[in-house]
Design a protein that fits this description.
It is built from 26 helices and no strands. The protein is mainly α. Helix 6 runs antiparallel to helix 7 and helix 14 crosses helix 20.
Length: 557
Amino acid sequence: MENSKTGKNITTSNETRSAWLMSGLFGILSGIFFVFGYQLERFDNVNFKDSGTYAFILCIAVILTIDVRYVWKSYDSARAGKKLFGLIELKGRESAAGDKRFILKTWAVLAALNTVVILAEYPGFFVYDAQDELNEVLTRSFSTHHPLLHVLLLGGIIALVHKLTGSWNAGIFTYTFLQMLVITFVLAYVIDYMRKKGIGKRSVVLWTVYYGVFPVIVMYNLCSSKDGLFTALLLYITLSLIKLTEDKEAFLKSRSLVVSFVISAVLMPLFRHNGFYAYLVFLPFTFIYFRKEITKKLVLMLVIPVVCYLAINTALSAVLSTKGTDHQEMLTVPIMQMARVYTYEKDSMSPEDIRTLEAYIPVDNLEMYTPRVSDMVKYGFNNELYEQNSKDFKDLWIKLFLKHPATYFNAWFLTSYGYWFPPALINVYKGTTVFTFTYTDSSYFGYEVEQPGERHSLIPVIDSFYRYISIGSFHKDAPVLALLFSPGLCMLIYLFVVLYRLSKGKFDRVLPYMPIILNWLTVLLGPTYLVRYVAILWYALPLLFAPKAERVGGESV
């Protein structure tokens, strides 16, 4: 009996220690995000030498650590039968009534809600390199800058419909509508999964309305960019991994689940290259988690997508005779770091260093340095020289880093802090003129229709609403409400939940979200901070709060 009590005490002590460590980690990271983010937003740099900066971080960290620990403790008590914060009772799960047509009915509702918006935004949001992708198909001149599968899909459908109807708008609408149907079907599938887990009728209605109406979701359902389909595939992979960790044997016995996972894992990186790197890094975590029950079928299911992606990508590049790789896409952060030194601390560079940098990045591009977006600088990058001699570029990067580490960190943070600072204003393209407008108040979403398309709104009121959210002053007029549209706030929610689950040792409740987490980490190395790159944070939010399948003797968290 004494041994039993001792064991319980040790377990409780370990859980308490883990809870404090994880809540402390949340507090420290949040403190850094808020203090650094505020300085970047207001002053375009972090003052790393200011002791007050670290004092503020410490204060925020202490306060949040205590608060988060209290919330987690209250939640644990509520799971044990008490009321959350002494006010809210966590009800048990309701049994879901069988309804074989639920997915189709939900899909119809989501598609109908989205159709209203696409009519308001007719022919759809044809933006974010859409014209370039279409022109690649029309001119038969392809490059690896854009995912080839998406280029063929988008350009092929639009060109075919234009040939049949003579209307570019009809082609854009057809592609956008078909994409919307695919994405909303995945969303309906997610809702059906949660319904079967017993979330209750009210929650089913709530998440259906969320998926059908929330602007961020609808924007990317109806946006021609690769991000919509990429996000839907990543969402399906996440749900598949949840099912896999709930019951590995049942998942692997289901041919449809295994095949659909493999297909999704192959297609996902074909729509956005960074998805491949996220999936590749994810694999070791999975093998470690399943190390005691690894099977040949599981290994094949996880590895086949890597082989297929490489084979398909290579084949497409060969068949379409694509142009060479644009190294600047992988070197965005180093390019911006060196450009910032060149812009603000050029006097510290030797004439030889300046000549070397200007050989890789022309003076005209270096002089167009803007802190929050790399496009104007990186587009002038000399890929041929880099392929011939990358050593000089790398040596100069290291040399300048050793001289200006703070400048390097500021350059990187300024292109990524919108992903981790909730109040950040996403207006990275301010002053940039596109086809139909100039960005002024916000560049939250591209909104427009690039040529050869042209917007003909059938419901102007809704069109005005989306314009206001996308490029208007919404984020300044309603800063509190705008937090619901913030990637930084979404990230903190995921961080809060993931760290809680880690504190409880619920690794099976964290593993399925690793591809999302890794995808988020890859975009920190991207050209700027835009919602399109992290839309998955909103799409997967319902799953984050979905109940776990019960096991005999197990606990639902």
